[in-house]
UniProtKB/TrEMBL annotation:
Key words of the record: Oxidoreductase
Family: Belongs to the short-chain dehydrogenases/reductases (SDR) family.
Protein name stated in the entry: Uncharacterized protein
UniProt-listed PANTHER family: BENZIL REDUCTASE, SHORT CHAIN DEHYDROGENASE_REDUCTASE (AFU_ORTHOLOGUE AFUA_2G00830)
Keyword 4Fe-4S: no
SUPFAM superfamilies linked: NAD(P)-binding Rossmann-fold domains
Gene3D superfamilies listed in its UniProt record: NAD(P)-binding Rossmann-like Domain
Region ranges (Disordered): 220-258
Entry GO MF terms: oxidoreductase activity, acting on NAD(P)H, oxygen as acceptor; oxidoreductase activity, acting on the CH-OH group of donors, NAD or NADP as acceptor
Length: 258
């Protein structure tokens, strides 16, 4: 990631970074159990889902701050990053669920940290998709069986997938990638930190929706409060509410901004 940052900032054709999207994610285990997943499952999931995000933030955010231009950072958590791994919550893969909770907390901390800094122009947002119509589940299932021969371990993983009935349903009724991008774009324009990308009626069961709304309702507002008056923005207004980096990227595409 550090090498990528160097390539970006050393290339005059790219200019500055208006939008950083830490979106990589994977799921490897097929169980809501803490004990059953192997240490390799735990380590691989956290390496991609958590440390991947941290590497992006540590490499790019200081450089984006130094630009002194309005720009934005988005991390992808998940609705699993607010619920639990029980049948009443996410219902599958405690490794994935725990990693997405970590992403939520890291992003909240970053938003709070930057908003306390004078003249900060980097807005931070956390995206919470439910199901999205991509190949994520198919790729995750392939990863679950990679290097696993016929036997008890393979049978256990197959059983775990069979128990995770809600997950394929959520994906089938989920948003398309284009719809997800529109939700993200609208949320960023409105200056939202928690950007929820799901449909209450179609995306997942009513219980899951109710739990998620209640979790968000008690999230401490101070974690995502506006920046102090010493900010370069007027008052406590978020720079993202006045200039969307996504909009700027589209409008000034010919300037080759990344």
């Amino acid at each position: 990631v550090e090498s990528l940052k160097q390539q970006v900032y050393s290339n005059p054709a790219l200019g500055e970074v208006a939008f950083l999207f830490a979106n990589a994610g994977m799921s490897r285990a097929a169980s809501g159990s803490v004990i059953e997943p192997s240490m390799e499952d735990w380590e691989r999931t956290f390496a991609v889902n958590v440390y991947g995000v941290v590497h992006c933030l540590k490499s790019f955010v200081p450089a984006m701050q130094a630009q002194r231009t309005d720009c934005a950072v988005v991390t992808t958590s998940s609705y699993a990053g607010l619920l639990n791994a029980s049948p009443g919550g996410f219902g599958s893969d405690v490794c994935y669920t725990a990693s997405k909770h970590a992403v939520t907390i890291i992003t909240e901390a970053l938003a709070h940290e930057l908003r306390l800094q004078p003249r900060n122009q980097v807005s931070v947002h956390c995206l919470f998709p439910a199901g999205v119509k991509t190949n994520f589940l198919r790729n995750s299932e392939a990863a679950m069986f990679q290097g696993v021969d016929e036997g008890p371990e393979r049978a256990r993983r197959e059983e775990g997938i069979a128990k995770s009935r809600n997950v394929p349903l959520i994906t089938r009724k989920g948003l398309t990638p284009d719809e997800l991008v529109q939700v993200l774009y609208d949320g960023m324009k409105e200056g939202k930190f928690y950007i929820r990308a799901y449909d209450h009626e179609n995306n997942f069961d009513v219980l899951g929706a109710v739990i998620m709304e209640r979790v968000l309702s008690v999230r401490p507002p101070s974690a995502v409060s506006s920046r102090p008056e010493t900010s370069s923005s007027s008052g406590s207004r978020s720079p993202w509410s006045t200039r969307s980096a996504l909009a700027a990227k589209r409008q000034h595409h010919h300037h080759s901004k990344l």
